[in-house]
Design a protein that fits this description.
The chain is α+β, with helices and mostly antiparallel strands. The chain is built from ten helices and 19 strands.
């Protein structure tokens, strides 16, 4: 291209850019840094977001924290905390064969799940490796809601061949909130949800809200007294305002994921693709995990008929082919050991810490770790973690003793108290 033509082209481009409004040009330049989707609660979250600390949750703009991650954690444990769970993937599974279909693809016996109940479950590929874990809500004899971390619609649709069932993703259509903490029941009662005191742990029921209904379940991810609420997306803001108004005198506060993550660790709960790698995300063959390798073996119901991965799971158990175990650790000192390597006798590498914290409730340095068997299984003595602590702009290597302990690390009676405590 000649210099004259090049100059003319450059001038045309500059003229075109100048004709675009400045705000549009800035947006175009930063689009790759901007998370596209907002949840139905985004206007309320944006108004409260003092830290502007956002992350990408399944394509949604979600807060790590909103005002102070330390105080947000204590809001869970001492008052009532509101957390937006709308980005959680949600599927409507409905039809005459819905129960049979879910019994076929998930580990637990769905025939034992009564209407108005929720259970925690997981599902595997044909090789017995975990694809994901999540919660299954039975809304009626033929209608379920499956909630999960990852998206599985193609797999679910393929698995539904031969079943008289409808599988539909409803993530965008259904807004969700987690209300957790000791005053959560009192907030719901004061908000006018009459009869909510009758909900036992893992119960669900429908309640009137804004000309429609809200589904409230006594579930959560904190190990505390808590509830999860689901409404159509267009009713989201009215639900948020109803709860915030009712909870004002009881210290209700909105929180981000960092606080929730600390609470779930104290409760000994695991997160897909954080504490274990799901089968569809595993690039290396040895990274996938079977249910027995991540503490989900209790879900497997061998009394029911065939389910995905059954043969492979039974073979692994019979032939002792299970390679890993997920354990709780208590570590000396008070420096969190997140992503620390675990050693046996300070020399042999045997595993990795996936989540760790100093627990204000347990008053212990706790962690979840994946170890190579027999370590953490039959060999539990002389375990160590390698921690690198920043001390005055220099990392200091610390070798700290660790011992295998039971999960959950804390157990709060108020979580299961019936009727719920009125704080």
């Amino acid at each position: 291209m000649s210099q004259l033509a090049d100059a003319a082209l450059h001038g045309a481009i500059m003229t075109h850019q100048a004709s675009i409004p400045l705000t549009a040009r800035i947006a175009a330049q930063s689009h790759f840094r901007t998370l596209r989707l907002g949840t139905p609660f985004q206007p309320r979250l944006d108004a409260l977001a003092k830290t502007q600390d956002w992350y990408n949750w399944a394509g949604y703009r979600a807060p790590h924290s909103l005002w102070d991650e330390e105080l947000e954690y204590f809001a869970i444990r001492s008052q009532a905390a509101l957390f937006d769970i709308s980005p959680m993937t949600k599927y409507r599974i409905e039809g005459p064969d819905a129960q049979a279909f879910l019994d076929r693809v998930t580990l637990r016996d769905v025939t034992k799940l009564r209407t108005g109940r929720v259970h925690y479950t997981a599902w595997c590929d044909d090789e017995g490796f975990v694809l994901d874990d999540g919660t299954l809500f039975r809304l009626s004899p033929t209608r379920f809601r499956l909630c999960s971390q990852e998206r599985h619609l193609p797999w679910l649709l393929d698995s539904a061949l031969g079943f008289d069932v409808i599988v539909e993703e409803e993530t965008e259509a259904v807004a969700g909130l987690a209300l957790q903490g000791p005053t959560s029941f009192a907030v719901l009662r004061d908000a006018g949800f009459a009869g909510v005191e009758r909900l036992k742990i893992f119960d669900l029921a429908e309640f009137p809200h804004d000309g429609g209904t809200a589904i409230i379940s006594r579930t959560g991810f904190t190990g505390d007294l808590g509830y999860e609420l689901f409404v159509p997306a267009e009713k989201a803001l009215s639900l948020w305002d109803r709860l915030m108004t009712a909870g004002e005198l009881r210290g209700i506060r909105a929180i981000g994921y960092t606080a929730l993550n600390r609470a779930r660790l104290e409760a000994g709960l695991i997160v897909a693709n954080a504490d274990f790698t799901t089968a569809e995300h595993a690039i290396r063959a040895d990274r996938s995990r079977m249910p027995d390798e991540i503490g989900l073996g209790f879900m497997i119901d061998l009394e029911k008929g065939h389910f995905n991965g059954r043969r492979a799971i039974l073979e692994a158990r019979a032939k002792r082919k299970l390679r890993h175990v997920l354990v709780g650790l208590e570590i000396e000192g008070n420096i969190p050991a997140e992503h620390a390597i675990v050693y046996h006798r300070e020399s042999q590498e045997v595993g990795l810490v996936s989540a760790a914290m100093w627990s204000p409730m347990a008053k212990r340095n706790i962690a979840i770790a994946s170890l190579a068997r027999p370590y953490g299984d039959t060999v539990v003595e002389d375990l160590w973690v390698e921690i690198y602590a920043m001390r005055e702009l220099q990392y200091q290597k610390l070798m700290k003793r660790a011992k295998v302990v039971a999960r959950p690390f804390i157990k709060l009676d108020r979580r299961t108290a019936n009727p719920p405590a009125d704080f």
